[in-house]
Amino acid sequence: MNSNTCIDVIIIGGGLAGLVSAIHLSKNDIDVLVIEKNTYPKHKVCGEYISNEVLPYLQSLDVDPLQLGAKRIDRFMLSTVKSKLIETELPLGGFGISRYTLDYTLAKKAVENGVTLLQDTVLDIQFSDDEFRVTTKNKGNYKAKQVIGAYGKRSNIDSKLKRRFIKNKSPFLAVKTHLKGDFPDDLVALHNFNGGYCGLSKVENDHINACYIADFKSFQQFNNIQDFQREVIYKNNYLKTIFENSEPVFSKPLTISQLSFSSKKPVEQHILMCGDSAGMIHPLSGNGMSMAIRSANILSVLIIDHFKNKMESRESLEKAYRSAWNKEFKRRLNTGHIVASLFKMNRFSEFMLLGLKSFPGILPKVIRQTHGKPLIVE
Fold it and tell me: Residue 36 domain-assigned?
């Protein structure tokens, strides 16, 4: 594959959405180049819980998380800042697996299917004469009929494209680590603290994934992560128990800043955005990974139809993707925003939890609003 060849599809970003799209497209005889700046395997800041809604789809791509040691999860626990607790069964259930293992497995499957995987950084994307020109830092230029943006939450590409959300405040910081300790295999927990919330769930190797989102201004008041955890996070008794009675697996936690949950467009300057590049749900709703995978499925099916001339024009493809993306995810994102806003109001969240305990059927219904139905694989 050289710079003079016009590739069918270039995918920018080799995370969940990018790799799943690459595998799906390559299984349908579409030439795919994935450009990813990092090497595999690599840990990422991520909640590492995935809803079962996408499990049949992953298995149809010959990737079975359960065979990789993923933990089956069917219970959900939620606590407030003052450690008021509620538990319920997850309506659909899910599984826990690390990005270290899952992304690496997806990358190997993509290469096995004939996908070209290039380690490089994309500097620019230009569109003219119904063709894309992608400029990389080290390997020069590549031409493509279609470009998928699957580079994650935030990138210099967003600034280049002058995407509207990039001007908005990005007031959140995320921290992730793995722990060795006592935690149920079948549970995902979300524990609130002042200015944020922490997700806990088991992944393969019996590690506990601990990932929390915090208000950056609150975090700045402390010298380091350890002080922040001790003075803020430990105010939640459940989090204090987990952190104080577990051993860290990583030499130091992973962090990512400038997180934004502002609205994005699924198509920008003819680039088809996928995964977090198209929209990011509040982690309090706990379903970002399955959203990324499901968006890859939606987009791949439409691109395949386009290449088979079932959808002749680029405009028709883009319109169909916008419509399908909004139909599938807009309600989820809106619900995620509402839930996160309510839990920011500490006093109200305490009363709200009492209400949820009095009417236990409400919480599963809220969870269903941030999750999709099981994906039927044809």
Answer: yes
